[in-house]
């Protein structure tokens, strides 16, 4: 990736003042105005060779966007819901020599085809193999966005159909810790099993609340997710989510007790897959969790919705 620095631009802090871009809490707007921090997040992404493209979610006033462009990224699209940021982002797009495209929209509903169109990519001709989703995510939609992307990755839909798609995402610290939580630790839960069944997960950077303007109530952390060569799923992703919701809703109970509460015959499923019924859901490895999910789905037991 050849480094093509951006021309000198007004400071993001000044643009915020100039355009009156006060943060709106309903859009989870907490900005990072320190370039050392956004540079570090951009480097955490460990962006691969020149064929990589970046999808940035929620660029806001665009300092992280600048850090990414400073790395020499050639193809980048930024999806921002709040139209107030469009003037500053278009300025940045102009300064980037067309390396940056901007879509105004909600990342939860934006069509992935529109992202590819904005990038000028035609499949299957494109030589590009990797897409990297990156962002200081709006905390209010960070978990639904991750669930949607993991679903897309498992079913190979949208941008996950044609590209290897890694993600570097900022979450509230507690959510980040849940995503990467190892077996038998207290943060381990549904999100850990869902993410780790599909991706290598790594918490790469803790970002204190003081780094944001306005200061949120909690610290944040950046998680790097790289799809596993082969997913651990033995059921569909929605089925795994359903089993996971059921088991983790009784995380203090043993598996035998949880199953027995469902149906007096249900503990037999544990024996069928040689699962230790004295374990609790958070004690299962990702592989064991998927094995149990398969057995539960095959058993035709009816789980609560
Ligand atoms: N990237 C900027 C930074 O690091 O300073 C802003 C981060 S701020 C935490 C989250 C950004 O996501 C805001 O700009 C907000 O308007 C935007 N946003 C909120 N919900 C969104 C959604 N559903 N789709 C796209 N962007 C969204």
Can you describe what's shown?
Keywords: Methyltransferase, RNA-binding, rRNA processing, S-adenosyl-L-methionine, Transferase. It is an enzyme of class 2 (transferase). This protein is an alpha/beta fold and 305 residues long. The chain has two domains: 216 residues, Rossmann fold (3-Layer(aba) Sandwich), CATH 3.40.50.150; 63 residues, Orthogonal Bundle (Helicase, Ruva Protein, domain 3). The protein has 13 helices and nine strands. The chain has a seven-stranded mixed sheet with strand order 4-3-2-5-6-9-7, sandwiched between helices. A two-stranded antiparallel sheet has the order 1-8. Helix 8 packs across helix 9. The longest helix has 17 residues. It is elongated, with a radius of gyration of 21 Å. The chain starts with 11 loop residues before the first helix and ends in a 6-residue tail after the last helix. The mean pLDDT is 93. The structure holds S-adenosylmethionine. The site of S-adenosylmethionine has 22 residues, from strand 1, helix 3 and strand 3.
Question: Which CATH architecture of the largest domain would you pick?
Answer: 3-Layer(aba) Sandwich
Major sheet characteristics = 7 strands, mixed
If helices are DSSP runs of H or I spanning 4 or more residues, what is the number of helices? 13
In spatial order, strands of the major sheet run 4-3-2-5-6-9-7
Structural class of the helices, strands and pairings? Answer: alpha/beta
What is the CATH level 1 assignment of the largest domain? Alpha Beta
What form results from the Cα inertia axes? elongated
Q: List ligands, each type once.
A: S-adenosylmethionine
State the separation between the terminal residues, measured CA to CA.
48 Å
Radius of gyration: 21 Å
GO cellular component, one term: mitochondrial matrix
Catalytic activity: adenosine(1779)/adenosine(1780) in 18S rRNA + 4 S-adenosyl-L-methionine = N(6)-dimethyladenosine(1779)/N(6)-dimethyladenosine(1780) in 18S rRNA + 4 S-adenosyl-L-homocysteine + 4 H(+)
Organism: Dimargaris cristalligena
Main location: mitochondrion
